[in-house]
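The instructor's notes for this session suggest beginning with a concrete chain rather than abstract definitions. Hand out the sequence below and ask the class to guess, before any prediction is shown, which regions might be ordered.
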Amino acid sequence: MRQTLLKIAALTGLAMSCCGTAQAAGTWSGVWRGTIGADPVQVCLQGGGFGDQGSYYRLQDLVIMPLEPVPTAATPNWTEARDGNPSPAAAVWSQITVSGNQLTGVRTGADGARPIALTRLAQVDTEAQPCGDLAFSAPRATAPRLTDARKMIDGIAYSVREYHAGPQFSDVSISTFQLDGATPAIRAINAELASRLPAKVEEADYFICSMANIGSTGRDGEYSDDTAPVLVTRGWVVSQTSSGSTCGGAHPNAGVDWSNWNLRTGQAVDLWTWLGPQYARLTPHGTYNDIAIMPRLRALLVKGWTRNDEGCESIGEEADSWSIRLTRKGFAFSPNLPHVALACTEDVEIGFASLAPILNPAGRAGVASFRADLRAVPAAPPALPPAYRGEWREALDRCGSDNDLDKVLNLSAAGMSGYEATGKVTGIERRKGGGITVRSDWEEGADPPQQWQDTRSLKLSRSGQTMQQFDKDGKPDGLWRRCPASPAAH
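After discussion, reveal the predicted structure:
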């Protein structure tokens, strides 16, 4: 997606620079910093081929506020357009005066009238329009925060790693995942998956997208790039990357990519290389293959295409670009469609039996390995030690009480429960200092159901009748008492 965004940013900048300069727009055009009342702010105002527009944000929250012009004789007034369109109650900037590198005016809104006092900043790129320049957006490039959350798929635990760009980027979603394990292959896959997160904010796709959209519309951009596993076996992981962006182009961008990871080699496998030349012809181009779909494969895609609604009926026959992924039944072929046809996206699944004549020797070996993993008996789920099983109440609560305010914890071999919530144990580790650390997936029967992950550390007393709970820093965080009618082992 990065190449696409760089092109968007370049084209947006060229379009704006070709259609009007700061001088043509008026002396008010530029990047400004100063105050509105007591609030420090960053402001951009611009004109030209896209019309007059602007944006600003308070340095304390960095959230973009679009500005729409209210034309006057020489210098426009501006109306704040929080939801994209000005409202009668929106704040108005008026009495705008420019003297050299100083701009003054008055902002009048629900909080009264407040003076505007701004000083012009030098642009980083003098050919770009002010709102698309780094000088305007640079303070928004704050350090990100990473969080990990435990998940399970197909009985195998993994971690979701989420990239938090900051509250100023409310329409940015970026995440990947990390597999459990320390084999060289898993380390290689985890390194590749982790590398998909941005390294430097000012060079990150979401930040470039934001600048491009502000530069062309005055509004912040939207960006998503989320990768998650959809199928896991002992030797294979299939992941899906869902991406989308609104970066100032003619229309939003959206797409889905698939990766097929070999857990034994640590490599992503291009399944097109598993097909015989009479079905697909590959021409290498650097790091990727140019793929020509041969008539025999085209016939299978047409046969498997089931959409017959208007505009979608001929996709199987006409689409030139397809992605392939492993499924439990065979291969799924998914067309890579332009924006106007995205609603037609649907898989064509070719089962293992029909795949046999399509595959080359490498493909037959790969499919045999994958199918052997599917037939393998899954590993037994982790089980809580017998000594921990039973009904537990918080130390001051009475056993047998049905008071909703009481805290109760029922522990079994593979699960936990407490009133309307149930948890499935996903991992157990020995705790340093004694006891165990238990990871679990929980669900509460609300409408819709609420789901979350939990990690708690527990340590039994010598008598086995009390159990200390610890927080993530290893500090005591509650004491549980075993109910008398609850045996230590079930």
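Then share the key points. The chain has four domains: 2-140, 143-210+219-269, 271-376, 386-482. The CA atoms of residues 468 and 479 lie 5 Å apart.
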